[in-house]
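Researcher: Sequence of Protein AIM2 follows. Predict its structure.
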Amino acid sequence: MIQQCCAAGEIHTGTPSGRVDKVHGLDCYIASPPAGTEPEGVVVILPDVFGWELVNTRILADAYAAKGNYLVYLPELQDGMAFDPSLLTSLANLEASGLTALLSRAYHLARLASWWIPFARANTDAAVRARLHPFLAAIRTHPATGRLPVAAAGFCWGGYWCFQLAADAAADRVEVESESGKRQALSLVDAVFTAHPANMRVPEDVEAVRLPLSVAAAAIDKMFPKRDVDVARAILERKGKEEGQRHEVVWYEGCHHGWAIRGNKEDEAEGRKGLEAEEQALRWFEARFGEVRGRAGE
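Model: Prediction complete. Tokens:
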């Protein structure tokens, strides 16, 4: 389970340009649109098991904010239990071959288990839902963000939560007052993007999808293998025709689980495909936010 959910990768170089503050009760990394511009929407990033402090994820938040003119939140959703980046070395060992790797494997497995067990205990579905849903509801009702469209972008561990949000359960919706003064129940988010999601139940979690969903799938991914990708694509295509909702699944040949966050920037092909996944998300946000604004203007 550890090996599958947390494929190896690398820490990217660079300095995040955002800030850290408390937002709606959670510690949060905040990336703002360029100075002098108003945000065109809110994007909430749901991280992988390395959490909200991983420099890679913060740099991605900065890119979303700068390129899309979005207000981007990267909240602490894991109760301080995120994996330490140094564990990438242990994850790499699980994929390595040779006598040296084999002899040290027991050590690395024990090290990973010492993090995974408390992480899993602190981040049950009920516990994460109790952090995430009020945070999103507050974005919907706060005067500064309540009129803006909202999207979620999730990776690996966070991808599971993207599928849960895309299900748009009636009980999860938040009641807000429209500009005309009428009360209405809104989904917690308007659209969802996920790359290399983990821990979903296929086909159940895909059949439950109601909101616009964009998926970036890695060709080399034990958590979301090709057979599940094919099933998900077929279901989403059918649902799109039957329900009139937009969905997409984009296949990234040659990419490993985790590439959209922890890909090797020195590998020209993987670095390029990491940018392609970033652009996929930005296109999705722009198109879906445009639809939300169009409906609001009707």
